[in-house]
Amino acid sequence: MKIKKLISIFVVSALVVTAMPAASSAAEIEGDYIENEVNFIYTQTAENEEDFCGEENISQDLASCGVISLKELPMDCVYDTAVKRNDDGTFTKTTVFNAVTEDDTPDALRKLERLNSVELAEPNYTLEEDTFTMPREITNSTSYYRNYTKWWFENVVHIPEAWQEFETFGEGVVVAEIDSGVFVNNVEIDENIWEDAAGHRGYNADSNTYECVPATGHGGNVAGIIAAEIGSNANLIGVAPKSKIMPIKVSRNANSISIDAMVAAINYAMSNGADIITMSLGTTGNSTLLENACNEAYRSGIILTASASNNAKDLAQQKSYPSCYNSVIGVMALDNDGQTLCNFSNYDSTGQLVHFALPGRTILGLPRTEGSTTGLTGMSGTSQATPILAGLAALYKSVYPDHTPAEFIYALENSSTRTCVTNPEVVTNTQYTYKVPDAVSLLSYGNTQPSVTPYAGTTTVIDEDTGFIYGLEENYYSIDDYVSVLDGSYEFIPTENGNGTGSTLRVYCLDGNVYRDYHIVIFGDTDGDALCDARDYALCEFAADSGPVPDCVRFAADVDFDDSVTADDSGIISRCGVFTDFVSQIR
To answer: What is the per-residue pLDDT across 507-560, written as a single tens digit (0 to 9) for each?
Structure first.
């Protein structure tokens, strides 16, 4: 199959209603792609549901664009592909297609994007396995484990310590491995292979079958890093050795992987309950279809990891996808010194694209043959660093099953205190620093309690005993100007009169559970409007007469700060109403 380098500019239609002319914008497309193939989104409109055309008729409709044949891509989890009834009584149906064309790819794209029915058209980009070395059989695995694996497994990432402290091996977590396939019956992993309801042990997204025989040794190596079983081989054990691997094969043949298979694979993982998707693959082709698939998987609650590629280049200058998408956690390769990136690993000079590095030099994985129990594979690359992070994500999800991908990333960012720098062979004039995740710190951080802290330069006081927050200015604009919430989230619940006394700052733990409520106090403000005025006088007098009021209101009514509410306090508040007195918010 011919692969061609595309560096051209063409117009991609914006997502618009098909009855309207397509809005266009110029975009530079660069990357390897399969010649005479394109992927596109096609929307039909019909008077009746039964009038929608099948693939054969659509092919005829698109013949002027050079389309020879079509293959519908399963994308129902990514796009709304159901038939929709419009306000005018017509119906629309959106389908994502891969097409074989007689025209070369740039010409086919230019023709397709002129059609109102085509919302997006792009090349069928190809991806590569992000391994720097071919699979190498490790015959003396005992010596290798002792000299290499044991070092990073125990001393860098602290995996056994995390197993023991948190009593988890990744139970109950499904990791979708999008790769070249896995020998699902190999004794090192057969008990950890996921099955669907019909007993299928994986999926082939390229052929739409359930055949997962590896096209290369890459997929098995990656699977073993994540979930190799306990006890089968003393020198091979996965990071999450009781998690389940959902093998999704995307290789047409050795190292031939395309976007149409990738998006079908992500859709399959979404529809079959994957908790994590890991992709040790990369391309310089920026595919909107792939990005949208990743984004929708993230929004559905799936953690996505991907390799940063092995070109020893700055990702700010040449991005690698999917690792550089916002919804995906990109991973660089840490060298055996534990301090620098491998000399093949890509890096990021901006600190915005990829943040994490994990060991990537000759990492052990499954044997190259289905029946082997001794000849483990050793491979190097960001491909091998990425499944270590996927395994850490599996441990995390096992302990905190309700945490979202955002919460996992937050914990990963804030718990990773160990760092490494760029390789001096690659970057000679400066150093860029990256985080090295630690299993114990990561799992500990997931249970971290939030803290509420006043900003320096304000008079804000947070009384942890009473839960009162005071020292804010009257008629203040936003609580965000006075306090910050660390290691958690919050919502502000005002009173019916405003954001004054009695308003609630509800703080949540990382797992989404309520940590505690804090209550706002504005001294002299008893009706909750954040002002001390004549309207507060009556409630203050009521409190002075021992009337039942909330504790925060009673505290706010004590404007002379003598720890009691009396007529003196109501007198001060009444004078505030006519601007002859003033209540200090500094107690």
So the answer is: 998 777 899 999 999 999 999 999 998 889 888 888 877 778 899 999 999 999
Structural domain tally of the chain? 3
Q: 542: domain range?
A: 451-577
262-284: string of b/e by CB count within 10 Å (b at 16+)? bbbbbbbbbebebbbbbbbbbbb
Residue 252: which H helix or E strand, with range?
Answer: strand 251-253
> What angle, 0 to 180 degrees and rounded to 10, lies between the N-to-C axes of helices 382-399 and 218-227?
30
Alpha helices in 356-489, H assignment, sequence order: 382-399, 405-415, 439-445
Q: pLDDT digits over 424-483, tens only?
A: 999 999 999 999 999 999 999 877 889 999 999 999 999 999 999 999 999 999 999 999
Task: Kindly state the DSSP code that residue 111 receives in the 8-state scheme.
Answer: H
Closest to 248 measured CA to CA, from 321, 193, 324: 193
Residue for token pair 């005992």: 142
- Helix or strand holding residue 573 (H, E): helix 567-577
Residues 398 and 495 in one domain: no
Q: Is residue 131 part of a domain?
A: no
Residue 192 DSSP label: G
Strand partners, 157: none
Q: How far apart are CA 581 and CA 53, in angstroms?
A: 79
Taking the mean position of all CA atoms in its chain, how far away is CA 464? Answer: 34
The full length of the chain comes to 587
Q: For the ranges 4-8, 262-266, 429-433, which has the lowest average pLDDT? A: 4-8
Asked whether residue 252 falls in the same domain as residue 305, the answer is: yes
- Same domain for 514 and 367: no
Tokens of 418: 């160990």
On whether residue 586 sits in a domain, the answer given is: no
Determine, yes or no, domain membership for 585: no
Separation of CA 155 from chain center: 27
Instruction: Based on the fold, state whether residues 426 and 280 are members of the same structural domain.
Output: yes
Residue 16 or 269, more confident:
269
Same domain assignment for residues 405 and 494: no
